[in-house]
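Duplicate of #3305? Posting structure anyway:
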């Protein structure tokens, strides 16, 4: 008998809680059963150096895509006889990235539920648990420091401020941290935890002498600390992130959040590849795509006659596409301006000096996603600067689902910070001017001036020109990059995963036999093993 039949008759809030617990328990039972099946057929060779796996920032109490990717990689290694050591948190994070309460950072994370999930996922595996410890000397040195001072703080041999900063910005959903006691409290805690993880990981490296280390993204503070100490010892470190196709992952020896791709200069799309990419783009230009299990465009509307009637009163139309603050908080994006809002300040000066141009400032559709709402938003910046009082400005908020693609095709050029929309504009044949460093400029696919002054001059030149010349290499390189990103570097794990039945953005394991994880049966596992064990590139063989 299905217990859900009785749950349906209960009051709403109680029904939801009980259903959540029942589904979670069922998922964990399935995960434990699968993990034990892997353990029964895995026979690691004790003479081989192990691979160490650390991904404490991928999930709390449910299976996320990224926790699944590293676990599947570990299972594949073990089934090939390679020892794997999982370093797993057992209340070792007095505060953690995913459980941070922005309103009250003193709230403790759900450690018991998280540990239960870990026990299910790592059943039958070699696990080293770590607990929380305090360094009194470090805590004493941090007392009284402001968030700005803590950003450059180092302790002994570790740049703790640098390791902690991306996590603080992501957790608090703001680039510019507020100097108040809750923020200082959280920053001190993250400094202490970064040190704790680093020391704990150093101890594990001493004991196991691994051949390589696998971490989630390498940017959030626990994994960043582990990555730092491993690289200092010359141990190869691989990081991973969700890729751009459903149920796909990106693995790299670089920074996963920067998405480094080494595309050969002689790589040219053939007719079949062009056709495959065009089919993908046809869906994307209709908003029909998702990233990490999230679909940003539930619907997409035409701009309409009223919009174009107003736009016709101006000489030209220029969209300004912003990004979400947790995607612009990474250092690799902010190489020209210190942050996105400093870039917007410069854009506003340009807007004021060009009343003949209609500027459409577009907030990213993910800026107000429930549960991940930005606390430092483009909407607030627009209001504080009274930008919409200018007759040549239209602000489009994140919950207005009109077609950015229609807008781009009828614009003189596009201004972006580092959003992927710039790559799509280049593919559509619209010139793109970048203020931050996007992933797709690795082969030149947009105009990317290297100083604020050069950015301003380039914008002025474009606005004053009768027509902006569009280099065909930008379109070609954007298509090359997108194809490589989708079909070479996105490793497919859809044979093993599907969407969770209850929680948007989470995953659950399909029913599959352990033999499906053998490299001869899974191209993705074959690529991961080659990269972790032999240093091969993490790229799919198109054959």
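Output from current build:
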């Amino acid at each position: 008998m299905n217990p859900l039949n009785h749950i349906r008759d209960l009051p709403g809030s109680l029904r939801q809680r009980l259903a959540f617990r029942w589904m979670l328990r069922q998922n964990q039972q399935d995960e434990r059963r699968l993990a034990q099946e892997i353990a029964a057929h895995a026979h690691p060779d004790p003479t081989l150096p192990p691979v160490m796996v650390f991904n404490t920032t991928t999930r709390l109490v449910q299976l996320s895509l990224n926790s699944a990717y590293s676990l599947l990689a570990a299972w594949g290694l073990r089934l090939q006889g390679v020892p794997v050591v999982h370093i797993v948190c057992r209340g070792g994070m007095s505060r953690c990235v995913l459980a941070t309460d922005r309103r009250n950072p003193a709230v403790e994370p759900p450690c018991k539920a998280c540990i239960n999930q870990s026990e299910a996922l790592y059943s039958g595996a070699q696990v080293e648990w770590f607990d929380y410890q305090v360094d009194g000397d470090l805590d004493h040195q941090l007392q009284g420091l402001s968030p700005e001072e803590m950003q450059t703080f180092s302790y002994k041999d570790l740049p703790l401020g640098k390791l902690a900063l991306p996590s603080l910005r992501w957790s608090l959903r703001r680039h510019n941290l507020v100097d108040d006691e809750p923020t200082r409290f959280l920053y001190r805690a993250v400094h202490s935890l970064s040190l704790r993880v680093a020391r704990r990981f150093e101890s594990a490296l001493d004991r196991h002498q691994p051949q390589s280390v696998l971490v989630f993204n390498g940017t959030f503070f626990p994994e960043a600390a582990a990555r730092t100490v491993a690289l200092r010892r010359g141990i190869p470190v691989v990081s991973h992130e969700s890729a751009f196709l459903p149920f796909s992952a990106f693995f790299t020896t670089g920074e996963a959040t920067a998405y480094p791709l080494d595309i050969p200069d002689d790589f040219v799309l053939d007719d079949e590849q062009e056709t495959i990419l065009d089919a993908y783009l046809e869906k994307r230009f209709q908003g029909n795509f998702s990233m990490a299990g999230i679909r940003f465009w539930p619907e997409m509307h035409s701009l309409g006659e009223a919009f174009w009637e107003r736009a016709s009163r101006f000489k030209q139309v220029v969209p300004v596409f912003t990004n979400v603050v947790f995607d612009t908080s990474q250092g690799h994006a902010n190489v020209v301006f210190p942050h996105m809002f400093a870039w917007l300040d410069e854009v506003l000066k340009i807007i004021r000096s060009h009343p003949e141009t209609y500027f459409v400032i577009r907030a990213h559709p993910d800026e107000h996603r429930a549960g991940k709402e930005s606390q430092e938003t483009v909407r607030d910046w627009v209001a504080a600067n009274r930008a919409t009082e200018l007759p040549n400005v239209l602000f489009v908020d994140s919950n207005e689902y009109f077609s950015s693609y229609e807008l781009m095709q009828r614009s003189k050029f596009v201004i972006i910070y580092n959003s992927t929309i710039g790559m799509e504009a280049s593919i559509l044949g619209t010139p793109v001017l970048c203020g931050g460093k996007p992933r797709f400029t690795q082969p030149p696919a947009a105009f990317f001036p290297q100083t604020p002054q050069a950015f301003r001059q380039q914008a002025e030149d474009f606005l004053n020109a009768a027509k902006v010349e569009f280099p065909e290499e930008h379109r070609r390189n954007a298509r090359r990059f997108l194809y490589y990103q989708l079909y070479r570097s996105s490793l497919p794990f859809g044979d093993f995963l599907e969407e969770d039945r209850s929680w948007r953005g989470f995953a659950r394991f399909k029913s599959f036999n352990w033999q499906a994880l053998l490299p001869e049966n899974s191209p993705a596992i074959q690529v991961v093993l080659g990269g972790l064990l032999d240093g091969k590139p993490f790229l799919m063989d198109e054959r």
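Confirmed duplicate; merging threads. The first strand starts at residue 51 and ends at 54. The CA atoms of residues 323 and 364 lie 5 Å apart.
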